[in-house]
Amino acid sequence: SPMSAVHEMEIRVRYQETDGQRRVHHANFLTYFEMGRTEMLRAHGQTYKDFEDAGLFMVVSEAHVHYHAPGEYDDLLVLRTRVEKIGAAHIKHAYEVIRGTRIIVTGSTTVVCVDPEGRVRRLPEWITG
Hints:
Elements: E1 6-12, H1 28-43, H2 48-53, E2 57-67, E3 76-86, E4 90-99, E5 102-114, H3 125-128
Antiparallel strand pairs: 1-3, 2-5, 3-4, 4-5
């Protein structure tokens, strides 16, 4: 499956993503993770809009973030995203945020496929491959 590949993207830390000490606010790493999921999907020729056009939504059911070192204003970070597991209705992603040669943050999320009423639905075949 193409989703088994690792997706990499660069993120330049913007000033508004930082706290009073010019460090990336901890919650923003979850935003970075979402960017990674979205861009990984796009790299494989699909978008979250495709899910929504099919009447499906991907909602986060679980998130873990381990902070090893801070990110700082104007850092150029590399975000690595990979699919750890695809189930009938969920996808677990794993992440590494790298500054230079150092992994500064690791994490994972699980997203679940639901319909507009919030009922769990099977993932579309184009993603389970």
